[in-house]
Each structure stands twice: as C-alpha cells, then as structure tokens.
Design a protein that fits this description.
- With 206 residues, the chain is of the alpha+beta class.
- It has a single domain (18-204), classed as Hypothetical protein pa4535 (3-Layer(aba) Sandwich), CATH 3.40.1540.
- The protein contains six helices and eight strands, in the order αααβββααβαββββ.
- It has helices at 18-30, 32-37, 48-65, 109-121, 125-128, 145-152; strands at 69-72, 81-84, 89-98, 131-137, 160-170, 173-180, 188-193, 200-204.
- Strands 1-2-3-4-5-6-7-8 form an eight-stranded mixed sheet.
- A hairpin with a 4-residue loop joins strand 2 and strand 3 (89-98).
- Helix 4 runs parallel beside helix 6 (145-152).
- The protein is globular, with a radius of gyration of 16 Å.
C-alpha cells in the first residue's frame, strides 16, 4: 500500500496519543477558516490542515494494517511524516490544498485534483522522490477516485498519492473521506469523528 523508509536516524517530534491531537484539532475543524490559514502548531511544523490530513491518513493506516501508526514533524523540512512504531519505518508527506469553489469556477473536482498533482509534480523528481503526496480537497461535487487514479498514473514520481476531504458535518458530527489514488482500484474509507471529538470510526467504502 505504501513504500516505507527508515526514519530512525532523525530526531522527530512524534505524537504519542492520536486522541489528544484530535482534541487539539477540534477548534480548527469546527471553523474551517482555521484549517485554511492557521499557523503551524507548536512543536509540530505543520499547518492545521496538514496535521489533520496526516491524522486522517494515520487512523486509516492503523485500521487497515492493524499496526501502531503515528505521525510526526518532517525532519527534512516537508509537511510531516508517518511512523509505523511496530516496524520502525515510515514515510514523508507533502501536501497540496484545493480551496472551496469560487464564483465562476466550474472546473470539475476530478480535474482540480489532477491539476493539483501536476502542480506539485512540476517541482521535479528530487522533490517527489521518497514522498507521499496528500491532496486536501475542499472542492464540491461528485467525483470518482478510480478515474483520477488512471488520469495521474505515470504523470508523477511520488511514492503514492492520497486525497481526502470533508464529506459532511451534520449535528456536530464530522465525516471525512480518504482515498488512495491508484489506476486500477482506488480504495476509499470514511472516517467519522464523534460529536465530542474523543473517538472515531474508520470504515471502507470502496
């Protein structure tokens, strides 16, 4: 599902409790503006939306693999790292953000994701090598991950590309979608946060 690399030679600030991070993110999640413009968290060189994106990816990996994944800052200056505490391996992430729709913009969700991946890919192979790209999308509309997976296949040099975003926020309960963009079949999951932000569920949807 991903390519791991050894991060043990670096000093990183790893998260010990995913539940505590979720509580720290509550204010930002309830006010999306915080996610878009919020400053880096103390001791974690990540913006709120980058931290939330890595947190969502982390809980999905925990659910899928059955192992103890956590997250940390990126010792090389990127947008965070994912750590497998059981295997003592991990991988680095880079993030790209798709803002909410603006007046007059009728670009499809699928095309916006393809374009976001292309923008990051223009930074070159050295930038992409060994990293996983996370697309945090606030685009609105129906789309099909399998199509996007096929569209970006062979057009980037990241180890993997994931996309995620808010699915719904009703009655104080937040639901997010998370998918890995693969050409043949893009697996997808739904992460639902409890109303009091002290627990969550992860369920496959595709």
């Amino acid at each position: 599902m991903f390519k791991s690399c050894s991060l043990m030679k670096y000093q990183v600030t790893a998260v010990r409790d995913l539940a505590l991070i979720l509580k720290d993110l509550e204010l930002h999640i309830r006010d999306p503006r915080h996610l878009r413009v919020g400053r880096d968290f103390k001791k974690m060189s990540m913006r709120p939306r980058e931290l939330l994106g890595n947190w969502l990816l982390c809980v999905v990996l925990c659910s899928v693999t059955g192992r103890r994944w956590t997250l940390s800052d990126d010792p090389t200056g990127g947008d965070g790292a994912m750590l497998d505490r059981d295997a003592e391996t991990g991988f680095l992430t880079e993030h790209v953000f798709i803002p909410p729709p603006s007046d007059g913009n009728d670009t499809s969700v699928e095309q916006q994701i393809v374009e976001a991946v292309a923008r990051k890919s223009k930074k070159g192979s050295e930038y992409a090598r060994g990293r996983t790209l996370v697309v945090f999308s606030e685009a609105v509309g129906r789309w099909f991950p399998n199509r996007v997976g096929r569209a970006i296949a062979g057009n980037h040099q990241f180890e993997a590309v994931w996309a995620l975003g808010l699915e719904s926020a009703e009655g104080g309960q937040y639901s997010y979608w998370v998918t890995r963009l693969e050409p043949d079949h893009a697996p997808a999951w739904r992460v639902v946060l409890s109303k009091d932000f002290d627990s969550w569920t992860v369920a496959p949807v595709q």
